[in-house]
Batch of 3 targets.
Target 1
Amino acid sequence: MSDPVLRIDHLTMQFGGVIAVDDFSMVVNPGELVALIGPNGAGKTTAFNAVTGVYTPTSGTVTLLGHNITGLRPDQITGMGIARTFQNIRLFSSMTVFENVLTAHHLRRTSNLLSATFRLNGAEERQMRKDTEELLRRVDLYDLRDEMATSLPYGKQRLLEIVRALATKPKLLLLDEPAAGMNPQETDELGDFIRRIRDEFNLSIFIIEHHMNLVMRISDRIYVIEFGKQIAEGVPSEIQNNQAVIDAYLGGGDEL
Amino acid sequence: MFNTVFPYLLSGISVGGQYALIAIGYTMVYGILRLINFAHGDVFMVAGIIMVYMAASGVPLLVCIPLVLLLTSLIGFAIERIAYKPLRTAPRMSVMISAIGVSYTLQNLVLYITGGLNQIYPTIPFISGSVTIGPATTKVVTVVTPILTIVLVFALVQLINHTKVGMAMRAVSKDFETSQLMGININRVISTTFVIGSFLAGVGSMLYFTNYTTVIQTSGAMPGLKAFVAAVFGGIGSIPGAVVGAFIIGIAENIIKGLDIILFKAGLIAKPMGLATFSDAFTFALLIVILAVKPTGLFGEKTIDKV
Amino acid sequence: MAKKKWDSASVLSALVILCLYAAVFIAEQLIPPTSMLFTVLKKGATYALVAVSMNLLNGFTGIFSLGQAGFMLIGAYTYAIFTVPIAQRAIVYQYYNGGVVQFTLPVFAAMLLAGLVAALFALLIGLPVLRLKSDYLAIATLGFAEIIRTVFQWDKLGPVTNGSNMLRLFPTFNDFNLRNAQGEITVYLSTLVPLLISGVCIAVIVLLINSTFGRALRAIKDDEIAAEAMGIRLSSHKQMAFCVSSFFAGIGGAMLAMYQTTVQAKSFTTAMTYEILLIVVIGGIGSVTGSCLSSFLFVACSEWWLRFLDQKQVIGGFEVPLLRNGFRLVVFSIIIMIVVLFFRQGIMGTRELPDLFRKRRSPAKGGEGK
């Protein structure tokens, strides 16, 4: 069996006296769609941030396709093939839809400051623009390309954030509550979209989500954490019937 | 050796106290609004100018002193209401630019009024006299400053820890939005902060200009910047930090002013190096080092950004 | 943007700029060189370059730096030190036996060097400073400018910097005029050349802003965390913007030296940085065109149009109150506060010259040329 795409070993994240993630381990296999769920404040986003380099883990290791990426900077980790979206949308607000996606191509550049400024990188720039156009066409955002990113409807902004992450050509995509604030119909469409990009772009996907219907419908496997600790792991049907998970959610006041 | 160093040390402590009184204004405003009030040093200068003009118009000094403090507090209050309050929801850069604009305006106003000439600061009888301590002869103000500073800081800390408005201030500086939700009148707290800060800058200006004797429109810029560095050095938002930082900077700066003579008398250098030039530069070098090594300063709290 | 590179709005903008240059050239041949118009254009060209370089940081990268006067000082000194004619060095460096630098560089080489030295300082100072958050960075860069000002006046450096004495007798804008064998001026270029230098430099900045690196910088300004997640290395990109900005501030400093005909460290004060910042704000943070327009407006008002405010004016036997030395600056300050408080977009917001010729606003594209 090949290397897992992502492997987290005994990850612990501590802030002062608070342990946000406690000895958490997991894997994402190639092509897999894995969800991380848990009540609010369980440490899900913290785990994401530790994987993407926003935080340096207190202890434990993160491995991407056999390379240890623990403690690298976020931009290095993105360069190695992990892209992410954010819980609270973080689009580039002064840019159009097109420019948002175009900017994500910057990290694959071969030009330097001088050659780019004096337009000696024409071929590369054209390629970036062509790739961006193509990507926007594939996800049906092409007609909106000249709109300001932040003027899009909420659902489209979420979509654009995913597309922008795709433009960095990742091997693993991390989605932090992509369905937050969406209505049921939009959520359904998002589910289809996530599966579609997984297949079309040969991705593995690691998702945090609160919409249980969505999680159960699209995930291959699910990890559940509470207070930073893993309380369950398995395929959706197993998780749905897991007593510890039900307790955690009833206790946490969330509906399952 | 001691005889050479002592006078510099003494004036360092004195200037340090004056910086401390300004630095408190910076640190309190930063604690609550997260704003570097670039105009604070100019408020300090304006307090000096008001004193000059008031004394010249024949108002007795004993009346001048409280009146100047009152007017300075009012100016602080007015600046906040006019230039910062309308920008409460604007990006931080806008507020900072507004502060720079206020600083520019105050300096130009004073330039216009004074014609850009040095104004002689009136002699405040009690603190202008001379006194001899050990090997040094100095003005009384040099001795009065640190004592007055400590007394005022003590009073301020009592105010913050034991009164209702003090409690509100602490709450607002901990969490702006939540305290608003809890029914604290944010605008009143902010105004109070500006009034206190300006009042202390007013006191500082009396001590400082008694020492330096002249005021001009740019007089506030340097002490203002140094007081800010002191606030950062001590950990911005912390009042004891600002005071400690101010004393350290005041002392270091004065020692450097006398470094040529000190080193020469100690036999370490053969001729003067012109090191006194660096007394200002030192403060900023210290700032850059502090920010690079420990951005939260001596007493500052670390904050974690939420993603 | 994705379709064709030169749309009609860009072409029109280029034409406008070309016409302006032509107009300046013609005016310079016809109008006496002592006219205030040329003073304003020369100083305006200098300030425009410095303002745009500051805008690159404050408006396009989101770095709130207040070190511009320091980098200008470095540029001005570098230029002056290497261009004072050898024959004049004994006079200029009279207290330092003619100084240690005993050669001169051609004017343009010295200007380039001025930029490079400023960029080098930026590289060094950027390492500790650029990691800081917005307001700390502002105060640290301000402090840096103050340190530079002190160091350049240090007596021990006198053989190079002339200590606290003035540097003078180096080539100025007037040396760009073409002369015949008798020394009479045949073609006036003393205004056009500075405008061209400034224009070329600003054009380079615009090219940078519209390149993939410029997009990365704007991404950093919009959202550092998202930019980093897109693979943009914050430290190196900020460092790059800081060095480029300082490079052009250094050239701007050299131009200021040429405009003033003398250089003295003590004039590069914090107030100078504030003035440039206010120019950027009035023009619109994030608009190159705005910075240029407001530089010329600012200089014109302070040197020319509002001068009357500084003198007694008698209209029909009635002496207008308040008018005396310094009133101009008060009026100025009030205008600035009004802009800061009520017109935060400034003149241009984030629009550029070509946007003015387009019907629908398509923001953040920027124009070629100035």
Target 2
Amino acid sequence: METFAALAHGMAVAVQPMNLLYALIGVFLGTAVGVLPGIGPALTVALLLPVTYKLDPGGSLIMFAGIYYGGMYGGSTTAILINTPGESASMATALEGNKMAKAGRGGPALATSAIGSFVAGTIATIGLAFLAPWLVDFAVRFGPEDYFALMCVAFVTVSATFGDSPIRGLTSLFIGLTLGLIGIDKLTGQARLAFGTPELLDGVEVTTLAVGLFAVGEALYVASRRHHAEEKIEPVRGSLWMTKQDWMRSWKPWLRGTMFGFPIGALPAGGAEIPTFLSYSTEKRLSKHPEEFGKGAIEGVAGPEAANNASAAGTLVPLLTLGLPTSATAAMMLAGFQQYGLNPGPLLFAERPDLVWGLIASLFIANVMLLVLNLPLVGLWVKLLAIPQPWLYAGILVFATMGTIAAKPSVVELSMLAAFGVLGFLMRRFDLPIAPVVVGLILGPIAESQLRRALAISLGDPIVLLQSPMSATLLGIALIALVAPFVLKGLGRFRASED
Amino acid sequence: MTDSESSDLPQRPASRRIDAAGLVIAAALAVLAAVLVWDANRLSSTSMYGMGPEAMPVVVAVGLGILAIANLIDTLRGNLPPRESADPKPVLLILGGLALLIAVIGLGGGFILATSALFVTTSAAFGRRALLTDFIIALVMTTLIYLAFDRLLTLSLPAGPLERLL
């Protein structure tokens, strides 16, 4: 009952005209930028962070959430129409959706992905609203050692457990942790890794890192392999509307995708790849038309797209209740909170219920706006795809550098942006995942301060980490999550060699 | 993503050459670990209970050291994913554009000139050859951005000779 009251209160905040406007701007920008190939929701939030720090916190957080959801919708349009999944989570969508578009069924593919995203987003946001207060009650009792253990779980799951290679994932994470060490140590005031450069004393800006890795890195990477293949946009031919049969074949995959996406996103496991992949293989198994898979089966778009959106809402659960980002976009949202001096977690629910519940309620509104905005305006979004590639990437880089120029117009900061761009290029080239770097930079300093607080309370005795049952359990989970991929990979190899 | 594609890369003993890039990655991680330890040694440990500021860098350095060895083993086993060829020219062109942007900002040339330079080099890197047209497009676009963000949103963007004319 408590949840209903809080949600009703949040709805009253969200429907204020200014907040509705922020939500509308957010979903519009999110879709527009999400449609552009090479820009995902994380980069969109990163680009807009420096521009919004003068705005009202509640309004801009609502806008960021709109961008997050809008970016997911826009990304699926790109995946269907030009078969370049901007992120691995849209891979399954691209697989079947692009085949549908080639067969002249691009309209229904876009429709099932938009309606599926709406269904999944709405159910998952309800899940968020009911799960959050419960988790908050639980998290209030957390001591610093429990938070530290929780962050260890997030570090391991984000980098090692679910990626292609645990070694490369952990390498990325430790690059991020190293960058997080730069700057003045908050407890003793001593400078670490600043090498006498005053600009480094404040530490590495999250936005500079994210924009460098995502925007500059992506532009360099795409430019370096331009000679390989030209992208081809599939025109949307025929009817936009789904037939009765399309509806019949879509509604179950939507619901099943949501069931995969939300819990996996809500666990601090990170990434939407697992639920979309699970959803894709489940639909392939359950479909009455398995022969269509690989040639454009509508179930293969409906399910993964729902799973993708549900997991995006799921990642907001640990973010809002525990302050724990488990995806690059969630990490950027956390940076958005931090720029207003707000720290997501149980305290924020107690101190700023208007802000938190206004944000949750606005997610429902954003979802409705996206459904209304997406289907009729699909022609407009497709036009965005027709921007010639040279101007597109040149424009992206102008906006990317503008954020840094506006926040800190110094030669050192801009050089760091360029250096992070080179890092992002090299990481893409050598298959190192990007998200763990951003998560490491943001969570590393928080984990360190929680650990030092725990050890200061226990007078330096590390046993405190194991005395709290919560922290001991979480550290155990982190250890299992770290070891499992190595053991399971060994098993996989064993099986493969027996075949 | 079918089962056969998902897990490991196909084992091809014939193409199992050692990838020099993997050795460079391992070496870079080792160097980074050494820098962390060197920097941590400079810090004065306080006599407080608990962890000093030097503890965390050492922990991260140990992790980096282990990962350097793990990456080395991974490389020697030929586990690095194969790469397609990359064209260095456009990369250098974009980096040149960024260098130009930094130089113009550093010398007080202002936002419009700096970002226009980046726009033209990036667009050239992606294959455009109409440099003058692109430069005019860039000037118009960045001037509009400057007016929108500097004047309307009161974001302070650096002003140079062109901005003072507006």
Target 3
Amino acid sequence: MNKNSRRNEKNAPTRGKGAKNPLKTLKRLLVYAFSRNKLATAFMVIFVLFSSVTKITATQFVAKIINELSMPVNGISPDMVGIVYPSIIAISAIYLIGSASDFAYNIIMMYIANGTLKKMRDEMFAKMQKLPLKYFDSRTHGDLMSLYTNDVDTMRQLLTQTIPQLISSALTLVAVFVYMVIYSVTLLLVVLAVLIAIIFITKFVAGKSAKYYLTHQIALGGLNGYVEEMTEGQKVIKVFCHEEKARERFKILNDELNESGRKAHKYAFILGPVNNNLGYIQYVLVALVGVMVIAFGGESALLSVYCSALGNGVVGMIIAFLMASRQFNMPVQQVSQQLSAIVMALAGAERIFQMVDTLPEDGGGEVTLTFGENESGKWAWKKPAADGGYEYIPLKGDIRFDDVVFGYTDEKVILNNISLYAKPGQKIAFVGSTGAGKTTITNLINRFYDINSGTITYDGLDIKSIKKDDLRKSLGVVLQDTHLFTGTVMENIRYGRLDATDEECINAAKLANADFFISHLPEGYETKIKGDGANLSQGQRQLLAISRAMVSECPVLILDEATSSIDTRTEKLIEKGMDKLMEGRTVFVIAHRLSTVRNSHAIMVLEHGEIIERGSHEQLLEQKGKYYQLYTGAFELD
Amino acid sequence: MIKTLLKSVREYKKPSILCPIVMVGEAVMEILIPFFMAEILDKFEDYIQGFPLDINYIIIRALIMILCAVFALLCGMWGAKLAADASCGFARNLRQDMYDNIQTYSFANIDNFSTSSLITRITTDVTNVQNAYQMSIRMLVRAPILFVTSTVMTIFIEPKMALIFIGAAVVLGIVIAVCMFRVVPYFRTMFKKYDNLNSVVQENLTAIRVVKSYVREEREIEKMQKASGEVYKYSVKAERILTIMMPSVTLTLFIVNVINLLVGSNMFLGNIEGNVEPTDIQTLIQYSAQILSGVIMVAMCLNFISLSKGSMDRICEVLNEKSTLPKSENPVKDIKNGDIKFNKVKFAYTQKADKYILTGIDLHISAGETIGIIGATGSGKTSLVSLIPRLYDVTEGTVEVGGVDVKNYDMDVLRNGVAMVLQKNVLFSGTVAENLRWGDENATEDDLNFAVKQACADEFIERLPGGYNYDLGQGGVNVSGGQKQRLCIARALLKKPKIIIFDDSTSAVDTKTDAKIRESLIKYAPETTKIIIAQRITSVQDADRIIVMDEGKISGVGTHEELIKNNAIYKEVYESQHKGGEESE
């Protein structure tokens, strides 16, 4: 798993780079977008086809009319009824079909694109829920967020504009090319010569532009990072009167951004007029060469099947050819302007697919958690027996570590040969400095991470044999960093157990001593929490997190620095509630304050991933070891 | 609003004005080309009908056309450069102006904006405005010119035809305007739904451990599907209108072409009065396309601008936010001593709030005193000390430092004289020395050594690879909490302040080191007033006086012994920390 994800890492395009495997990604994206809507896709292609063919055909009819009108050689007046009017009617019909097809393919594409984007977002999100924590550890939130924002956005343009345009451009190119071959091979050569020049210049200019867009991206990242860091510390800047310094550095970064942006945009903007005006030059050259060839070489030198074999007039042919040459350049121009969009979209798609392809967290074993199914009528593990039946093991909360070795990466071992046990109803505390491995131990119990070697058992069952969701359901956790969700206070408490009544939630809040501040909020329990509880103090958020754990009624509790931001007086006030919460449950406590862990059944002192001391508060004090030193303040925690 | 934004154009006024003019040059050239083309074809037609071919005439016309195209090309390239200069430069100035203004913000202003919203405003919002500006200077003048000159050219050919074109343009303009009018509100709603979707993802990311612990993945997925469903609903609503718009534009163009053919051919034959040659029909078709594309371009520009209005609003909010701390007229440039006086101080964070954080504060602290402050979360400890370096202004009453009202000081002088070690403290990317020199840019190595020694940071800095040159990483991630706090203290000490305030600044430092820092402060800076906010009684019990805060009021002032005797809150806190022996964190 680990190896696999690292290999993927190497293949993923970094932000600001093109896709590693553009063709494969494009193919996959097309299949992703269109395979769900085969019928609609078929219709869309047909309508795009109609739309481009009608536009070209209409142009031919226009040429035919002009030809007829300018042919009054030998005094024959133009045939209005036989040729001009029917042509106009034909053109009208063609235009109507064209517009209708335009509308039809646009609307189909709109639904396909929006549906695809919705599906993509939903699937990414659903996938994200199943990814192991390791995945999140190795990426910043900003990176993951831009999958949903930037990368999906570039996809929108690709699907709604670029792809239909590519289809129609390809069709137009082929059709117009055929027409031009029929009209005049000589003139076609002129068109092709200029086209080669256009492609050449476009490649050069677009290449420059892409190069500066890359530096632009990097400069933008630099500025973002600076603003983020500095704004985070804005109050420190104020306190140290550092404003002028902050401005100066910002100015340097801002100027860099301006410089690269200016160049990137300049080349991008130049592309339009260059293509457009080279097109005009081509147009003039075609006309000039056409006239010259006829004047000096005669009509036959134009190598025109249209005139010689089909007997049409030369003027009409040249006009038709001129129009066709404009139509021929249009797709080239459009595609060249979409080039950077395509490159960006494919890089984004590659990143998205890479995320979707990441292996999910495994679901765990076959043992499930049941309530009230066996004779005791309480929580029990349901284990499939060899004979096809089930064996029920009552959930007691007995957790044992046997020789556990663990590291977040293969290179660095965090926990070394950890063995410990927590008997049902015991309170086990972990003490030690930052990085000693306290939180890691609790992360292993709920299988946020899997151990390298050794075993962890839960009521005698290897935790790997238990279904992961059920394992986690049996563990109530209050984490070091409290997180709340947008919604009311009540909803946030109910997060612990979805079927908890209002009364149960309020009771839990009362036990956690949160009721007091909640009732002082503008709308009490119905107060909306926004932005991860930005309107609450850290201490208040922790009280809510504790209420949430109380509601969950889990048989085993993990309290990771659950009261670190609560002042000692309030902590004293909620002590009773906490005792009630811990009553009869197996509890793992990690605490900064030694007063919190004092009355534990056993205290483990961790250092560098090993348990160096264990025992009750009194025993450890008597040992006069590390715990004693910590307790008397000779060492700093954290 | 637009006026506020345009103030930031400044030195880019020249390219901003020149760019549309150059673009007009390009547009006019482009319009001349079909006109000359028609002339060539006319001659050619004459030749087919038996007249001698005037080669020179044709070559001259062709050369003029090529010159036109080359001139248009040059104009286009110059215009592109000008547009890039002007729009990027405008964006640069906008960003700089915003950031400069943020630097003048008071704490109260900073509280109004979240970090992430400031980042979005400086980056994404500015980019949106930049795009709208770029569109405006490139298109908003060019498009009407394209429209007008094309119309003029058609009048040259046949005024009646021009009338048809103008009529079509008006109809098209109305159709587009109606579509836009209907589409913009949908887009606005869609952007809101989009924000909502982003916040669902963001929240899920930050709380992924909670989600997994409580096995709430399914519920989160439901939430997301609801959010993405809303986005889908409104983007379909909005885009459905846009999809009607484009085909109706092409349809209008087609109808104009058919009329053009019908009327043109009859004019040529003399059935309808008018002067149209067959080749003119072709030219007219080209002009009609240009006239209508002018209309479309204007519509698209306006659309862009109206969609970027939200971004403009958000930028203006940052630019228009005025510091809540008015500057003093005749600023006092010197702080006499570290004497502090609170006279009948009342304080609330916002003007509107009816709830005062602090009330009835009367307090005198003499220079050189060591003061401890203790109290529960939310009792107003931090608010009290924030008034001393004038991080906030009092709502009522006065705060004096060195016998002068803090409002009368030059801000930099006051804040350099009153060092505050914040509760939520931050170190910045860079080396240890760079971070320390925030306190005093010109600090010598000896100054640094002295400060870190007082803050008891000398030992661990020595052990860091590279010592003072050790890179702290973004936000100082490469050192532990206790080490970070000591660096922050050393940084503040380098200011050699008259008053130093520790707002819970040693919570992660062990009690022994904590005591050592306090001892060295008393020893090396006897004249500096020292104010220490702490959760731990041990951190304050040796202070000259201790202030006990409770619900925004001073509940008691006195020495440790006095307060144990006669302050119930103090006694309670003391006991909660001392049950069964020495307390430590």
